Amino acid sequence: MSARHMSAVIASLALGLAFVASPVAAQGGGSVTGLVTNAETQQPMVSAQVMIIGTNRGTLTNQAGRYLVPNVPAGTYEVRVVMLGFSQETRSITVTSGQAVVADFNLSSSAIEIDGITVNVITGEAQRARELGTNNGQIAMEDIPLAAVTSLEDVLSGRTEGLVLNGLGGTIGTGQKIRIRGANSISLSNEPLVFVDGIQFNSGIATAIGLGGQDTSRLDDINPNDIASIEILKGPAATGLYGTQAANGVILITTKKGVSGASRWNFYAEGGISQMYTEFEPNFRQIALRPGSDPGANPINADGTVNFTDYSTCRNFVLANGGCVSTNLQTLSFSPLNDPRTTPFDTGYRQRYGLNVAGGSDRMTYFLSGEYLDQVGVENRFADINTQERTTVRANITAEVNDRLNIRVNTSYTKNKVRLPNNDNTTFGNMSALLGSDTFRPADPDDPFDPVTNRRNFFSFSPAILANDVIQQNVDRLGLSGTANFRGTDWLSFNATGGLDFASFHDNETIQPNKIPSTQDTRDGTRQSTRSSNYIWTLNGSTVATRDVNDWIVSKTTVGGSYYNQKNLSTECSGVGLIQGTSSCGTVTRDFAIDEDFFQVVTVGFYGIQEFQFNDRLFVQGSVRADDNSAFGDNFGLQWYPSASVSWVISEEDFFDIGFIPELRVRGAFGTSGLRPNFRDAVTLFDPASVRVNGQDAPGVIISSTGNTDLEPERTTEFEVGFDAGLFNNKVGLGFTYFDKTSKDALISRRLEPSLGLNASRFANLGEVSNSGTETSLSWQAINTSNFGVDVHTSWSTFSNEITQLSPDGSVEPIIINRGEQRHQQGSSAGAFWLPDFTFNDANGDGLINEDEVTVGDTAIFLGHVLPTWQGSFSLSIRAWDWLSISNLFEARGGNKQLDGTESFRCALFALCRANNTPDASLEDQARSVASRFHGTDAGYIRSADFLKWREFAVTLDVPDTWLASVQGLSLTIAGRNLLTWTDYPGVDPEINEQGASTNFNSNEFLTAPPVRSYSLRLNWAF
Amino acid sequence: MMKFASSKGSSRRRLAGVGVLALGLTLGLSACDDALDVTDPDRVNPETLKTEDALPVLVASAIGEFQIAYNGGTGFAGASGGDGFVSMTATFTDELMGAGTFPTRTRMDQRDWFDVFDGNTSDVAYVNLHQARRAALFAQQQLDLIEGTRGDDWALMRALEAYTYVSLGEFYCGAVPFTELDESGVVIEESRAPLSTSDMFTRAITRFEDAIAADPSLDMARIGKARAQLHLGQASAAASTVAGVPTDYIHFIEHGSTDSRQNNGMEALFDAGRYTISDVEGINGLPFRSANDMRVPFILKGNNGDFGFDFTTLEFRSLKYPEQDADLVLADGVEARLIEAEAAITSDFPAALTILNDLRADAQEIMESRVVGFANLDANFGYVFPPALAPLTDPGTDAARLDLIMSERAFWLFLTGHRQGDLRRLVVNYGRMVDSTYPTGVYSRQGGGLYGSDVLAQVDFDEGNNPQFDNSLCETNSF
User: What pLDDT does residue A20 have?
Assistant: First the structure.
């Protein structure tokens, strides 16, 4: 169906509703106007939402805090003003035709957020938090120190209970996993959907070139300075209307729009530095003097290598067996990553400049912005191998075409160019230095750049040589969205939103000939290039009919439909034998290969919502959505997703009288959402292949996928209950939520028995996964005067995840992942660590452990979760007078384990860790190494990943208004990020992950670059 | 609050509205299917493979799948080589040692597999051999359905299918299922039951005989049959089977460089520094390097200077597959002669010795016909050709004679996937002890420790999803 055809359908639906309902003619009108101020500071409030209850009329206050609602039919109304962080106010007015009624409001701050406004991107309707039965996360961007964040992931981290980011590494441009309320799916992505201004946004990771593990994130294309607010819908109870693909939650991003008034310009300039603060474990070697050698012989040769003439290697596990003589034992150590003469790390830097302007009239407002970001990562001592240049521009226009029609058009363009280093599971990365070196001091400290001698300081090649592997990603991204709200009558409105998220990627890798002396191909020079275009079309249309059933019941009925079409087209080429100085597939001389790839998924859905509001304090809503999707199996049709919710502001009932609880809202919701199968999972398909037959290339096929025509989406049903309370005059806000969700028909990538000769696996709807937990938040306006304010916010979440079923008949074996270290097993959490454990005993009391002194269990046992079981955050904000504000954010997480794969490799395979080579190595560490090396279990390297981090701080100095002439505002902000870590995790960092955002459950640290500490200084100038 | 008046005049509008609403819904629902139709230009639909035009494609597919299974290949854009039956069995025995870092390859080298649920390198060949078998079976089914008569193509498919039985029987434990699908893709339940090793060889023989019946000129089927007959202790019958195969007969697994999947997997693995040629590995190994034998040409050339991927192990790279498109001999007349020699060990050793010496006398010519660019290895790779192979003499005892023939087999059939079968027969057929046959003792590479006791590979853990198979059936430390 074409978009035009779909529009006709939606228009027909809307038109039909218009005729069904009873019309009421307008009878001429007056206007409502007034001023909204902050009760504490008496300052005007900008962008406060003003609504005429019972109508679909309303507006926002302008920069002076004033509002005007024209053409209001004569009659008696209630006017309500709401603003995030403040208690709502409602006042009765009477409008007379041809006259203006003045209604001023003075809003008091509140630590409880029951009256915040959000916009439902599906229906286009504004909703107050009090109407919702779910605990949706809200991030107010004005509370974020923008100097401390460069990406959307920085904005999300630690600010909403239930949302966890994982896989933070130290490489600029790479992404993290986002998990909301655990993980619903074993086989499909657990990433939430992202919408920007009502348009579905391609947030997936996207790197066609292998980096060893990490991947880029398209969330990096969003400029945080353009964001007005973020709402997080956490589960099916809230996302049922989003249908298939929304079971993991939805992140709704709204960008800034103009405010009526004079144009207000804002310029900012920022500079920052970043530093590697991790002290890496050195490479060790324990040596013993050979019999007859001079005890004074230097253990290290002039070139830094070990003097094996006079010494021999004598590791603890060999010593334990009497395999070497413990004469004049010495331990050599060297860290090429720490040693200032060889380290590839240096101070990184960034610069950022931005300019935006907002303003407009009552009829049209605008927000225009542009930003340039340039940053260089810390792996830059020998070459800038990790860089980012990002340019974003945006134009958001809102127009009141007439008193019935409002149109909003948002456009954005992003150019994002990154250069990425190798690390993680590759020897082409600088972090591979943790796997050993030939030398125990720099081979040539006078010439650290010499590629030949310096090679010996590192496991594979020196950083200078590795820098010749040039990997880049260039992204051009265009966002276009349009929203039209038409008020057919005072009780009937129509909303249509449509748009396109288009992203063009160019991923490429070039190795010039004779630069990296590895394989023949590498020596000859290689080129790999992938160009892809990604489109996501979004179309939503809905009709809302609001009517007063009687004096105390309002009915709101919504029907609508949506259409999503995601398509990706890519072409990739590669070749070997690159001509010197070129970087194109057209200049390779052999092994040329080319491929095309295609991906498309279409979703069509219809929905209906019925809400009843009782005295504006009890809200009951039911909805249902029907979806069909091109990825469903042929034997499967529409999928229905029902939802229901109730919210009751019980404190507004006459019977409620608890003095210290002025506001209390109880809420509950139930909802169903889904996750569609992947593209092509439902069909059996073959890939073409070229086969050599009788000296010629002949066409052949290989099986690409073993399909399942009965494939259905996973269905996740969630139930949540909770409350929000304002205590002690709303100075304290307390929120609590319990959620419980079950994913049925979970897609299990059912491993097929290889004897079938088909693919390794085929999806089938067999499993069940359950997630439950709690979310608690406490906000405290400790001090709130005109001169001084202290706000404290803390949140705490708990999570419980379990695979309750892998198959109804128990026939599916545990699904082994991550090289056998983890598994999906019925009765266990998803992706948990299961390995044979071990015990040890220094039987002969020599302080050494050999393989006979370690006993390993016969079977694998549960060793730990990979998903956190708890998460917390703490923020402290201080406001002093008009010119000083300080904010801090701490984040903690735990209950999960991480495989310290780096140390396991160092000990078990290369025997260069501390446990193998130092006389004071603890028995436990020695046993850990022996168990891995000789008995094949990494159980000793499954370590607790609990941590507490000082995530960010910011200090802002605002120049007092009295000092400024024509300038409207001037401030200076000092900010820092990833400042301190407290953890018992012995590896590099408990947050990093070998595969970053590209893995669903693998929890392995392996040669991964850790997070860096950064500081920035930002000047903000408003005029 | 607003109230809503109702009037008679609006009833017609209401009815009209209902009509428009119904029309919109009807239009919407009927158009849904169109909207959801996604054309996928990138993949081949199975229905297109069931036509006469597709038969050559199916035959080529099976050949390609067998190539990958037997000798590996490489991924897109020059990824490091993928293991195949040849590289795995070579590393498991005494032909190769590891020079990389993958723990699974190291454990394979040590004959000490990880637990089955952890996964082992051998799983790759297990999966690929079955895929090759299925591809060959599917081609046979379609040839039967469409052509009706069994000709050359059908015979080749049948023989390749048989070779998968031989390979699985030689390397994997004595409990391997060979599940089959009927023409409509439904599993034939009785085929799920695992076969013993002898059953695998017996089935292989049956299939080779079918192939020979369909194409009497298909000598690779005769050689394959004889290979299986040797394992069943039918040496004389094996010799009779190959009696008519000319010595200059060769059946190659062809490789190419048009697509990285065509590449010679063994060459790719050396290029990626994953393996090195062994020499007297684990006390019992043969002196593949120190013998300085032209049948095992090699140079010292790592992918990191002289070292392999682990930057520690010297990499002695085979020149038997010097290029990406170097072909691999699956079966040839040399193997036929060696089978005849083995059959004559006890009955007529002088005849066996003659066979061996005749081959040795023609070594240069034989190698030139089997190794691409063999005559120019010196110019192209700096290889120093050793002297011509001297004639062998009778060592005098049965045991020494057996050693001699097995050594000749090892050098002639180096890196062709025969060594594991030979060591197996030494233990099973000839009564040798495992510890005097397979590499044993101290493992010299970075992991340290001792060689393990495994003599066979495990069946992939996922076979446990076969309702008629249990992983506990698979014994790997005894035949």
Answer: 37
Retrieve residue B438's tokens.
């397979």
Contact check, Cβ <8 Å, B20/A19: yes
CATH topology for A200-276+344-677+712-831+866-896+945-1022 is Maltoporin; Chain A (2.40.170)
What number is the average pLDDT over the span A151-171?
Answer: 90
At A1, the pLDDT band (50, 70, 90 cuts) reads very low
- Reported as a single tens digit per residue, the pLDDT across B431-441 is 999 999 999 99
C-alpha–C-alpha distance, residues A999 and B346, integer Å: 60
* Chain A contacts in chain B segment 7-26 (CB below 8 A): 7, 10, 13-14, 16-25
Using alpha carbons, select from B230, B239, B276 the residue that is nearest to residue B422.
Answer: B230
User: Residue A414 gets which letter from DSSP?
Assistant: E
- Beta carbons of A459 and B311 less than 8 angstroms apart: yes
The residue of chain B nearest to residue A811, with distances taken between CA atoms, is B465
The residue behind tokens 């070292």 is B307
Are the CB atoms for A185 and A770 separated by under 8 Å? no
Kindly report, residue by residue over A319-328, the tens digit of the pLDDT: 998 888 777 8
How do residues A558-606 score in pLDDT, each as one tens digit? 999 999 999 999 999 999 999 999 999 999 998 888 888 888 989 999 9
- Quick one: pLDDT band at residue A483, thresholds 50, 70, 90? very high
The per-residue pLDDT for range A913-923, each reduced to its tens digit, is 999 999 899 99
Could you tell me which residues come within 8 angstroms of residue A468 by beta carbon, excluding any fewer than 6 positions away?
Answer: A511, A512, A515, A516
Q: Which of A723, A728, A809 is nearest to A767 (CA)?
A: A809
Q: Which amino acid is at A531?
A: R
Q: What is the pLDDT of residue B2?
A: 31
Overall average pLDDT of the A340-369 stretch: 93
Strands (E), B320-474: 328-332
Looking at beta carbons, which residues of chain A come within 8 Å of B181? 756-757
Scan residues 308-327 of B and list those with Cβ closer than 8 Å to A. Answer: 309, 311, 324-325
Distances (CA, A) of B198 to B157, B210, B233, B289: 22, 19, 10, 34
Query: In which residue are the tokens 């025997």 written?
Result: A911
Output DSSP code: residue A713. -
Determine whether the interchain pair B43/A704 forms a contact, defined as Cβ–Cβ distance below 8 Å: yes
Which residues of chain B neighbour A758 with C-beta distances below 8 Å?
A: 131, 134
Q: Do A10 and B24 touch (CB under 8 A)?
A: yes
Residue B8: pLDDT over 70: no
Asked whether the CA dihedral A899, A900, A902, A907 is positive or negative, the reply is: negative
Beta strand pairing call for A663-675 and B275-277: unpaired
Domains of chain B: 47-253+260-268+290-317+325-473 (1.25.40.390)
Residue type for position A653: E
Residue A601 with chain B: CB contacts under 8 Å: 38
Pick the CATH number of A3-109 from 3.30.300.30, 2.60.40.1120, 3.30.1440.10, 2.60.40.10: 2.60.40.1120
How many H-runs (helices) and E-runs (strands) does chain A carry? 10, 53
User: Which pLDDT band, with edges at 50, 70 and 90, does A814 fall under?
Assistant: confident
Domain spans, chain A: 3-109, 200-276+344-677+712-831+866-896+945-1022
In the prediction, which pLDDT does A245 show?
81
- Give the residue on A whose Cα is nearest the Cα of B53: A699
Backbone angles phi, psi at A291, to 5 degrees: -55, 130
In angstroms, the CA B31 to CA A563 distance is 12
- B305 interfaces chain A, CB cutoff of 8 Å: yes
Nearest by CB to A693, from B18, B36, B63: name it.
B63
CA A251, CA A180: separation in Å to the nearest integer?
A: 10
Q: Please, which pLDDT band fits residue A681 given cuts at 50, 70 and 90?
A: confident
